[in-house]
Amino acid sequence: MDVIRFREANVDDDVTIARHFFQLWRDNDVPEASIQANWLETTQQFITHARETLAYKAFTAEINGEIIASVGCQLFAGLYPHVLAEQQRKYGYIWGVYVEPGYRRQGIAKSLTQMAIAHLQSLKCTSVILHASLSGKPLYSNLGFQASNEMRLDIAFNS
Questions:
Q1: 28 is in which domain, residue-wise?
Q2: Residue 79 to residue 36: CA distance in whole angstroms
Q3: Residue 150 confidence (pLDDT)
Q4: Which of 27, 83, 119, 120 is surrounded by the most beta carbons within 10 Å?
């Protein structure tokens, strides 16, 4: 049986992490035509910026040197001005949890998410935020994540 190796990602892994992020959207029924053509460059630029300014780290799972899963995490930049003291509100954000289909339901996403949480704890975050797919919700609930008070109104027009 192949051994799964977990490790902190490095800059050389950014392309794979970006590809996983793309595939995450595809696996959640987002049509490829709805994803910007420059998704790879955009994701790599985002990662570079987050690494420089938001304490971004990623973690991977690999088998025989091939990355089969990844997760990214960083400080949450926020949607409005930061006026609360960090001890009151310093959020971490987890994004891009992805496991290739043949390796799902083996605890890999759980292990990667726990690694991301540990990194955010080391930054003294007070809470961790993520947006879960329907298939991911049970995993995150089991890790102690709770539904929040976020409300949403879809206002897009269909032509």
A1: 4-142
A2: 23
A3: 82
A4: 120
Q: Is residue 67 part of a domain?
A: yes
Q: Which amino acid is at 126?
A: T
Largest distance between two CA atoms of the chain = 52
Q: What is the model's pLDDT at position 88?
A: 87
Task: Tokens for 31, please give them.
Answer: 């049509």
Record the tokens describing residue 14, joined without a space. 């950014």
Q: How many domains does the chain have?
A: 1
Token pair 């997760």 is found at 71
Domain containing residue 89: CATH number: 3.40.630.30
Contact 130, 93 (CB under 8 A): yes
Contact predicate 61/6, CB 8 Å: yes
Between CA 96 and CA 52 the distance in angstroms is 18
> Considering the domain boundaries, does residue 42 fall inside one?
yes
Any alpha helices (H) in the chain, and if so which ranges? 14-27, 39-53, 108-122, 137-142
pTM: 0.92
Taking the C-alpha atoms of residue 14 and residue 23, their distance in angstroms, rounded to an integer, is 14
User: Who contacts 125 (Cβ-Cβ below 8 Å, separation ≥6)?
Assistant: 75, 90, 91, 92
Is there a domain that residue 117 lies in? Answer: yes
The span from the CA of 42 to the CA of 139, in Å, is 28
Asked if residue 55 belongs to a domain, the reply is yes
